[in-house]
């Protein structure tokens, strides 16, 4: 069930659908528009994140699942809940994706 869920997540992102805490379910035809290049998933030991601070300075931080596992991100919930989501990082992966706009189209550049 991992691959269909992953493709649902990727397809929603490629369609520009906002994440609001609930995942979307797409048809197999829609999932087939998203191809994982060479069916490969790449594991990494560190993630480097570039961001802008509150005073508009550029900063970089690293996330390492062996030493710095805790993180927080802005919540996508309404104003009556806590503004952050907290998580514990387990592993870091990336994939290369080919996206077909329609079943007969040539693939679009991945985002």
Feature tags:
single chain, 111 residues, globular
Question: Would you mind describing this structure in some detail?
Answer:
- By secondary structure, this protein is of the alpha+beta class.
- It has helices spanning about 1-15, 30, and strands spanning about 35, 40-45, 45-50, 60-65, 70-75, 85-90, 90-95, 95-100.
- The strands form four sheets. The chain has a two-stranded antiparallel ribbon with strand order 1-8. Strands 2-7 form a two-stranded antiparallel ribbon. A two-stranded antiparallel ribbon has the order 3-4.
- A hairpin with a 5-residue loop joins strand 3 (about 45-50) and strand 4.
- The longest helix has 13 residues, at about 1-15.
- The protein is globular.
- The mean pLDDT is about 85.
Main beta-sheet annotation: 2 strands, antiparallel
Low-confidence stretches: none
What is the count of helical runs? 2
Order of helices and strands: HHEEEEEEEE
Mean pLDDT: 85
Helix content: 10-25%
Shape verdict: globular
How would you write the strand order of the largest sheet?
A: 1-8
Number of strands: 8
Portion in beta strands: 25-35%
Q: Report the radius of gyration as a whole number of Å.
A: 17 Å
How far is the N terminus from the C terminus?
Answer: 24 Å
Return the structural class: alpha+beta
